Amino acid sequence: MRLANFGTLVMVMYGVVATAAATTHTFYYEVTALKANPDGVKEKTVIGFNNTWPLPTIEITKGDTVLLYLTNGLKDSNTSLHFHGLFQNGANAMDGPEFVTQCPIAPGQTYLYNFTVDSQSGTYWYHSHTGNQYLDGLRGALIIHDSEPMPFEYDEEVMLTISDWYHDSHKDLMKQFLNKYNPTGAEPVPQNALFNDSRNVTWEVKPNTTYFLRIASVSGFVSQYLYIEDHEMTVVEVDGVYVEPTTTKSLYLTAAQRYGVLIKTKEVNPNKNFCFMQALDESMLDIVPAELELTGTNWMVYNKDADLPESFDFDYTVEGNEPVDDFTLVPIGKYPLLPDYDYQIVLDVEMLNLANGVNYALFNNITYVPPKVPTLATVLSAPKDQIFNKEIYGSNTHSFVLQKDEIVEIVVNNHDDGKHPFHLHGHIFQVIQKSPEFEDPTDYDENDHESFPDYPLLRDTVQVAGNGYMVLRFKANNPGVWFFHCHVDWHLEQGLAITLIEDPETLRETQYLSDNFKEVCDAVGMGYQGNAAGNTKDYGNLDNENVQPSFLPPGFTAKGYFAMFLCVITALYGLYTIFSFGNEDDATLSEDEMIENLKNILIQNNAFDESLLGSE
Ligand SMILES: *[C@@H]1O[C@H](CO)[C@@H](O)[C@H](O)[C@H]1NC(C)=O
Ligand SMILES: *[C@@H]1O[C@H](CO)[C@@H](O)[C@H](O)[C@H]1NC(C)=O
Ligand SMILES: *[C@@H]1O[C@H](CO)[C@@H](O)[C@H](O)[C@H]1NC(C)=O
Ligand SMILES: *[C@@H]1O[C@H](CO)[C@@H](O)[C@H](O)[C@H]1NC(C)=O
Ligand SMILES: *[C@@H]1O[C@H](CO)[C@@H](O)[C@H](O)[C@H]1NC(C)=O
Ligand SMILES: *[C@@H]1O[C@H](CO)[C@@H](O)[C@H](O)[C@H]1NC(C)=O
Ligand SMILES: *[C@@H]1O[C@H](CO)[C@@H](O)[C@H](O)[C@H]1NC(C)=O
Ligand SMILES: [Cu+2]
């Protein structure tokens, strides 16, 4: 029974749907830098297409083919494009993450993203997968219209993106973030939250109308709450998966998550307007600067001549107001819990300082460091008898090899008190366990846990609670190299990622590198043959592979490092010599930046408590 039902799931996930009128959409986009001021507060250089920003919403229909020619028109940055949530079944090289499935696209180069969307519909998005470049705006919405009737009715469809927004460029922020002078790994705090790439947005609505609102978080870091004055939302889609309608007063979206909701307007025009609020999840911020507005007011406008109320107070922590818990949502079609796992991957999350003083994010003591050859290219070039040997993919890509069609279970034990939204490329997974937040790190216990849902939620991005755990399951039926990583872009840059090498045998038999793939690698000086170290002769020899910095000496804990750092910086601060801190290497911080960092660190660590200084 179970297996029969599971067969349906597989069909739905990967079956080729015959559509009479499949279309090929061809796009030519040049990635360019331009000025924009989406929050109305400060203009900055953003990254758009063809000197335009915001980026277009790409709209296609299930069964269609996309040919997107992406030309890198930037002068001093590589680029790439990932279509978030798409399975890319049979088209692994179209997935986008640099060093995983392709080489970075150098300035002047063009890479063709050529894929057919066989079996998916719903609300998606696309974004650069080069460093944390998408924080500067290289992201947009992707809608895949269903070729069949949707399981709910509505009158009009409307797209909405939400995001966080920084005034500084991602490159400047990254220099300060991944830096020994930021030893606690405090993430840069955004300056604003955007609503549809703007602020103070008025959404004109008609009375007695049901809107299907597709909401995509294109954030890089902070999750957001959404709630509307005197209106409810009925969730019908989650990350491209239709779910049984569930009505809620508020929503919570982490970076990269999507919800499709129905909003029914008042039957009779009330001739007034209602606040559509967004609120940053302040628990994710190390400090909340006084000038940061945690909420943003937008409006559902029934009458353009009526007032726009200033704000709507709403407490989403009160029972009844809480955002819908995604764990309770049931996909339409009720795909049963996958059978017990064949292969289990247990990942312990840790954030700590390595010997260079920088704060890293690690899974099982490994922080992701890119290989010298894209991992997909290693699979396709290695001798056939070596492709199941994970060593060839490099020790710091943190690779796991999955067998064809096995049931894979990923357990994430979060030993960090912060929240992390994890995303798996190439799949939707069943969320079969999701713990609350805990005071102290609490691991998943296989022999003692809450019962698994009969019909678990399926989605592609899910958040693990601070000090908590979650358990995900999927079937390894999509040959490819797939990244699994935190979608907080800062944490991805800190190395919070693993690489899954799924059914490498079928992958080799069915997929190959195009000439275009190779040209792009050549242009950026990367190989497309060889193991992770670039060795094309002896795949077992990983000499000179990219590796992570070494661990701090034993007994030299992060806390100790911090205490030492604090002593030094406090002393230097007192001597007014902070200006010359940047000395020999990377970190040349201005006085303002230094004071800002120092302030963050002091507040974050309650550093006025002197016991910390003596703690090691
Ligand atoms: C973008 O610019 C390229 C040339 O760089 C041009 O070929 C293409 O038609 C433009 N695309 C759009 C949508 O304007
Ligand atoms: C939104 O309103 C604020 C406060 O009035 C203003 O400073 C800002 O420029 C506005 N932004 C936009 C994009 O309209
Ligand atoms: C582009 O990628 C290559 C290969 O990783 C790297 O060597 C180069 O520094 C990158 N270019 C820029 C501008 O970051
Ligand atoms: C796109 O990919 C398909 C299938 O791999 C291939 O047949 C086709 O030639 C490609 N199109 C272009 C323009 O390269
Ligand atoms: C958001 O922007 C898109 C694209 O411009 C537009 O079609 C849509 O109506 C806007 N959504 C809202 C809620 O204003
Ligand atoms: C609202 O729409 C429903 C269904 O279309 C219709 O039956 C009803 O009369 C409408 N109400 C008003 C006040 O127009
Ligand atoms: C990580 O390293 C620590 C210290 O070396 C060790 O105690 C621990 O078992 C390691 N954890 C894993 C998951 O390998
Ligand atoms: Cu994270």
TrEMBL record:
Residues 31-148, 156-304, 368-505 form the Plastocyanin-like domain. The keyword Glycoprotein applies. Keywords: Cell membrane, Copper, Glycoprotein, Ion transport, Iron, Iron transport, Membrane, Metal-binding, Oxidoreductase, Repeat, Signal, Transmembrane, Transmembrane helix, Transport. GO terms for cellular component: fungal-type vacuole membrane; plasma membrane. Its main location: membrane. It is found in: Cell membrane. Its cofactor is Cu cation. GO terms for molecular function: copper ion binding; ferroxidase activity. One of its GO terms (biological process) is reductive iron assimilation. It is a single-pass membrane protein. The chain crosses the membrane at residues 560-579. Residues 1-21 form the signal peptide. Belongs to the multicopper oxidase family. This is Ferroxidase. It comes from Saccharomycopsis crataegensis. The lineage of its organism: Eukaryota, Fungi, Dikarya, Ascomycota, Saccharomycotina.
